[in-house]
């Protein structure tokens, strides 16, 4: 009896170790929930009008983090599923998505290993689809709260002066747009 439970325990421990090897966290630790957005309800909107997709991603300051609404149409289902992220830099006037650089990664985690959905605090802050799931299209209406992004400039997860980028299944950047504070 004792022998069986000993091996049972060993199995559980090695499974936990195997899972732990795939979970990493930022050099600055796990992302912390944002509780000091200056104006609850303030909206920032990224507007897309490209051949690949049309619509908006709206980021609304919440009591904890940001409420996102993805409202887009026209995605080619054959090229999905699609990832979407907050990228570090805004899109320049010429529209080059490559110039948005990488994901917003305020806690310095890197994108490998991939985000573990059940532990969103360990993921790159800007890796929204890693944390909340990819979208398939053709039309998407999807809402979720992300506790770790912020409309408060002093916070690590600040989304101002940044952009939202969509990627197709090949990781190509199919569309990008700046988050602009609604007047
Ligand atoms: C860990 O990652 C490796 C390589 O990406 C993968 O093959 C393996 O299944 C993962 N293990 C767990 C427990 O998720
Ligand atoms: C954010 O979403 C939560 C959960 O759906 C909701 O209770 C809350 O009222 C929303 N906050 C704002 C400011 O829209
Ligand atoms: C687009 O604009 C950025 C910023 O001015 C510049 O660095 C980049 O070279 C431009 N790219 C193209 C393809 O024109
Ligand atoms: Cu991206």
UniProtKB/TrEMBL annotation:
It is found in: Cell envelope; Secreted. Keywords: Antioxidant, Secreted, Signal. GO terms for cellular component: extracellular region. SUPFAM superfamilies: Cu,Zn superoxide dismutase-like. The keyword Signal applies. It catalyses: 2 superoxide + 2 H(+) = H2O2 + O2. Its EC number is 1.15.1.1. It is an enzyme of class 1 (oxidoreductase). This is superoxide dismutase. Belongs to the Cu-Zn superoxide dismutase family. One of its GO terms (molecular function) is superoxide dismutase activity.
């Amino acid at each position: 009896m004792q022998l069986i439970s000993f091996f049972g325990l060993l199995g559980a421990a090695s499974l936990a170790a195997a899972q732990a090897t795939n979970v990493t966290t930022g050099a600055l630790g796990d992302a912390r929930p944002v509780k000091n957005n200056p104006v609850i309800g303030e909206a920032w909107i990224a507007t897309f009008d490209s051949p690949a997709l049309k619509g908006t991603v709206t980021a609304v300051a919440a009591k904890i983090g940001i409420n996102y609404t993805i409202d887009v149409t026209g995605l080619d289902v054959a090229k999905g599923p699609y990832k979407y992220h907050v990228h570090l830099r805004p899109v320049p006037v010429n529209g080059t998505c490559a110039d948005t650089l990488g994901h917003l990664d305020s806690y310095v985690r890197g994108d490998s290993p991939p985000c573990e959905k059940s532990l969103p605090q360990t993921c790159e802050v800007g890796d929204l689809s890693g944390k909340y799931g990819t979208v398939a299209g053709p039309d998407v209406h999807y809402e979720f709260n992300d506790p770790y992004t912020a409309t408060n400039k002093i916070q690590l997860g600040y989304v101002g002066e940044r952009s939202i980028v969509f990627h197709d299944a090949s990781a190509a950047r199919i569309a990008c747009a700046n988050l602009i504070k609604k007047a």
